[in-house]
Amino acid sequence: MTEPMSSTGPAHFPLFEGGPFDRVQATLRLAGTEQRHVRRRLIFAILATWVPLAVLAAVQGRAIGPGWRESMLLDVAMYARYLLALPLLILATPGFRQNLQAIVRHFLDAGLVEESQRESFSANITAMLRWRDSVAAAVVLMALTVASALTFGTVSVAEVPDSWRVAGTAGHRSLSLAGWWLVAFCEPLYRLAMLQLLYRLALWWRFLWKTSRLHLHLNAAHPDGAGGLAFLGMLLPAVRLPVFAIAASVAGALANLKLWTDASFTSFQYAIAAFAVALVALMTGPLVFFYGQLHDTKKRAVLACGALAGRQLRAFEEKWLAGSGPAAGDMLRAPDFSAVCDFNTTVIAIQKMNTLPFWPKQLVPLLVAALLPFLPVAAIEIPLKEILSQIWKLVK
Asked: Rounded CA gap, 28 and 259, in Å?
C-alpha cells in the first residue's frame, strides 16, 4: 500500500521496503527493518540455500567427488552466491533505506525544492511508490526469475553433465537432488533478490530523473562545493555492499570456470574491467542527471559575479588608488579591503564549484568493491605477490 503524503513531503521514503514480495516475507515473519528481522532473513537465506545443497549432495555422494566439478563442497560459486552475495544483499537494505530517507528529506528541509514545485516533487514520490507496489511488476519479475532459473537448470544438464548438479548416465542424465534444489529454490531466491534490487534501482533512477527536471534552488557559492547537492553523494557508501555482492557472485562463477576448464584469467581481464565500470555506473549514473542544472547555475554565477567584481574593483580603484588616496590610518579602519577579500573568496568558490554532486575520489571505493572479489580468482593463476606488485605500481 502506498504511504500517504503530507503537504511538505513524505513521512518516509520506503523504496527498499514494502511491495508484494515484502508482504510474502511478512507472512513468514521475515519482513521488517529492525536488526532482529535482518538477522532472521540472513539465517533463513543460509539455511534454505547452501545448507540443503550440502545435505542433499552428501546423500547422493556428491559432497566431495573425484574433482572440483564433481564436489559440491568445492564449488566456489555456491559459497560466493549463497554464503556471501545473498547475505550481503540482505544486509545492504537498511543502509539503502536510511540514506534514501535522508536524501529525500533534505531536498525539502534545505529548501532546494521551491514551493511551487513541491506538489510535483510529492507526486513523483507517490508515483514511484505506486510502481514499487505494482502487482504487474512483481509478476514480471517472478516470470523472469522462473525463466532464468529453468534456463540455468537446462544448461547444467546439457553443458555441465559431469558435475555434482547432475545424476544419471549418458543419455539419461537429469538433475541430482542437490541440482533440483539449486534450480527449484536457491537460484530463484537469489535471482529474485537481484532482480528486485535492479528494479528498485530503476525506480530510483526514475525518481532522480524527474527531480532533476524540477527547478531547484541551487547556489553556486554553497560551501559543499556542488551547489547544495553534494548530499546526494551520501548514497555512494551505502552501495558498496551490493556492488561487492554482485561482483562476488560473478567472481565465483569465473572461479569455477577457471578451476573446471583451466581457462586463462587474463583472457577475461578486459571483461572484468568493463563489468566493474558498468557496476559503478549503475549505482552512480542517476546523479549525473543533475549536471545540467549545476552547470547552468555555475555559468550564471560566474558571469554575474564577474560583472559585479568588475564594478566593485573599479569603485575600489577610484576611491583608494586614484590620485594620492586617503591616509594610511583611514585605510586600516576602512571596510572596503575586507569586502573585496570576502567577495574574491566567494568568486573563487564559485569557480571551483563541481558540476556533479560527487567527486571522482568517491568512486574509488566503489571500484575497489567491484574488483576486489576477482583478486582471489586471479590468484589461482597469477602469484598474489605479483598481483599486489602490479596494483602498487598503478596506485603509486
From this structure: 38
pLDDT at position 96 over 90: no
CA distance 272 to 262: 17
Burial 98-130 (b: 16+ CB within 10 A, else e): ebbbebbbbbbeeebbeeebbeebbebbeebbe
What pTM was estimated for this model as a whole? 0.83
- What's at 61, amino acid-wise? G
For residue 109, what are the CA distances in angstroms to 9, 95, 209, 231? 10, 21, 20, 12
pLDDT tens for each residue of 189-236: 999 989 999 999 999 999 999 999 998 988 888 888 888 899 998 889
The grid cell for 14 is: 520506503
Q: Residue with C-alpha cell 530517507?
A: 101
DSSP helix/strand/coil, 40: helix
pLDDT, one tens digit per residue, over 330-353 is 544 445 445 555 555 666 777 788
Do residues 349 and 225 touch, judged by C-beta distance below 8 A? yes
CB 47 within 8 A of CB 185: no
Q: What is the number of other CB atoms lying within 10 angstroms of the CB of residue 22?
A: 18
Residues contacting residue 191 through CB under 8 Å, at least 6 positions apart:
144, 145, 148, 149
Percent of the chain with pLDDT over 90: 31
Distance CA 29, CA 151 (A): 31
- Single-letter code of the amino acid located at 120: S
Beta bridge partners of 167: 174
Report, as an integer, the average pLDDT of 95-118: 85
